[in-house]
Specification:
14% strand; five-stranded mixed β-sheet; 10 helices; single chain; alpha/beta
Amino acid sequence: MMKVSRSAYYAWLNRPAKLITAEQLNLYRRAKVIFEQSRNSLDYRELRKRLCEEGFQVSDYGVQKLMATLGLVVTQRVAYKVTTKCKHSDAVADNLLNQNFNPVAPNQVWAGDVTYLRTGEGWMYLAIVMDLYSRRIIGWHIDKRMTTDLVSKAMMKAYNLRQPPKGLVFHSDRGSRYTCKQYRRLLLNYGAGACMGDVGACWDNAVVERFFGSLKHDWLLKVPQPTREHMRNNVTAYMRYYNLERLHTANGDLSPVQYEQSSLRKVS
C-alpha cells in the first residue's frame, strides 16, 4: 500500500535515530519560544537577530532550516485602510519633517495617530505617541469612542512620562482630532509645535503606520478579540513587547528601550 519494498522498510527500521546535542536542543527550544512570543510574526532574519542576541551562533540559512524543521511559519500581513479625515474649518500645520523620521536625540520629534480596532463588542480606538528617535511608544490611550480626549490623553501620558523641553515638534496627520482648537491649545501649553503630513500621503507618517501594521497583523489578528477588555489587555501586552523586546533595524537591532539606554550610556 505504501509502495515501499521489504528491504527498504527493514533498512529504515534498523537505521539509528539521529541524535542532537544539548546545545542544539536549547537552540530549538529558544527559537520556538521567541517565535511564539511574537505571535508567529518573526521572519528568519528577525529570529536570527534575537537568537544571536542571546549568544547563539547561527546563520541566516541555519535559521531558515531550523524554522522548517520546527514548522515555524510566519503569518502574512494584509493591507488595511486609513480613514482619518480633516475638518476644513480647523487649522492645519506645515509639514516640517518632509519624511525625515530620524531626529538625533530623544524628545525632539514625537509622532502620533489613531487607529481602529475591532472586537466582538464593537469598535475601539487607539491613539499613540511615539518618540521618533528610538521608535518607543511613550504615550497611548484606548477607548470605545474616538474623540479629541482620546488623542489628548495619549499626549498627556507621554508628556508626564518624558517632561520634554520646549521646542518639541509633534507630527501627525490632518485628522480633525489633531487640528481642533482643544488639541492645539494642549500643544501650546506644553511648548510644543505641530507638524502635519500632506493630504492623502500615508508615507508622511510612515513610522507610525508601520507600528499600527505590526500591532494588528503581527499581534491582535492572531487571536480572537471577543470583548473590549480583552482587546485592551492585548494592546497593553503588545506595548510591553514592542518597547522592551522587539528589535528595530533603525535602532541597530535594539529594542526602543535598549536603544535609549545605550544612548544614555554613551552620553555619560
